[in-house]
Amino acid sequence: MKGVLLVNLGSPDSPTAKDVKPYLDEFLMDERVIDVPNWLRNILVRGIILQTRPKKSAEAYAKIWWEEGSPLIVISERFTEKLKEHSDMPIALGMRYGSMTIKNALKELNDKGVDEVLLVPLYPHYAMSSYETVVVKVMEEQERFFPDMKLTTLPPFYKNPEYIRVLSEKIAESLEGFDYDHILFSYHGIPERHIRKSDPTRFHCKIDGKCCQTNSVAHNTCYRHQCFDTTESVKAYLNLPADKVSNSFQSRLPNDPWLKPYTDFEFERFPKEGIKNLAVITPAFVADCLETLEEIAMEGQHQFQEAGGEGYKHIPCLNESDSWVKVMASWIKDWQETGALPA
Ligand SMILES: C=CC1=C(C)c2cc3[nH]c(cc4nc(cc5[nH]c(cc1n2)c(C)c5CCC(=O)O)C(CCC(=O)O)=C4C)c(C)c3C=C
Ligand SMILES: [Fe+2]
Predict the structure, then answer these.
(1) What span, in angstroms and rounded, lies between the C-alpha atoms of 235 and 124?
(2) For binding Fe(2+), which residues are annotated in this chain's numbering (predicted)?
C-alpha cells in the first residue's frame, strides 16, 4: 500500500534552555549543517555554541510559543490533518530533529501496511542543511528499520506553477490595503561554502551576479538559484515592478560568509534609501516558525522602525491554508494514481 511521509525541521519540546539544548545539539551536530570535521564540530558546537545559545534561543522561543506548542509543529500537524481529509492514503508527519522522530513516523506508516512511501520534505528549495539532510536521514532509517519499504522523494517545488500560484495569491491577499514601497523576499541563509559544495559540476557556482541566471545542471541543487527563481516567478505572476522587489538572507550564525545581502542589514538600509513602508515574505518556510515569527515579524519590525521605517508587514507563510493543502493533495494523488511527481 502507498503512504506519505511529511518531514519538517522540528522544534524543542518546550521554550526552556533545558529542552532547547538537546534539540540544538542534535541540529548543529548534523554534518550537513555544521559541515566541518567531527572533532572540530564537537569543539564548535559543544564547547562554544551550546554554552550560551540555548538560553538565548529559549528566550526567543518563549516569545512565539503557543498554548498548543511550537508554532512550526502545531502548523505542520494542522496541515497534516487537513491533508488527510483529501486522501485515502495513510499520511504521517515526522521531524528531522527533536522528539517527533522520522523513525516513529515511518513505523506509523509501516504499522498501517504501507510499503511504498512518498517522502515530502517540507522545503521548497534544495539545501544540504534542509532538504538533503531530511532525505539522507529518511533513507538511513528506512534501510535500517524498514528495509522492505520503497521510497520516492518529492523534488524541491520552488518553481512549481501551482506552488507559485498559491504563494502569489497569499502575498496579494496579505498586501490588500497596505501601501508598500518595497517587498523583501527574505530566505533563510546558508554559508556560501554550502553552495559550492552542492555544485555537482564543481565550477558553476561563483556566487556572483551571473551564475544563478546562467543555465546549469548545478541549479538542481543550488539553494541560491532556487530562491531567486521563486522570487522571479512570483514577480511575474503578480506583475510586480522590478524596482520594488529584492531578495535577502536571514538567520545567519556568526561564522563564515553566508549568502548576502543579509536581511538585518537591509532593514537598516531601506529607510535611508526612502523605503518607509515594507512588506516581508519568507518563502523558504512553508510553516511559520521561530525564524519568521520572532526574527522577521518581531525583531525585523523593530530594526526597520528603529532605522526610520514606518509601515511594516510580515506576510504569513502558507501554513495550513486550504489552497496550499489542495495543491499538496493534488501532488500526492497524482503520485498515488500514476507514480508521477510534480514538475
Ligand atoms: C529553509 C530551511 C532552513 C535552512 C536552509 C536552514 C539552515 C540552517 N539553520 C541553521 C541554524 C539554526 N536554524 C534554526 C532554526 C530554524 N531553521 C529553520 C530552517 C532552515 N534552516 C527553521 C524552520 C527553524 C525554526 C525552527 C523552529 O522550531 O521554529 C536554529 C534554532 C534557533 C536559534 O537558535 O537560532 C538554528 C541554530 C544553520 C547553521 C543552517 C545552515 C548551515
Ligand atoms: Fe535554520
Answers:
(1) 17
(2) 188, 291
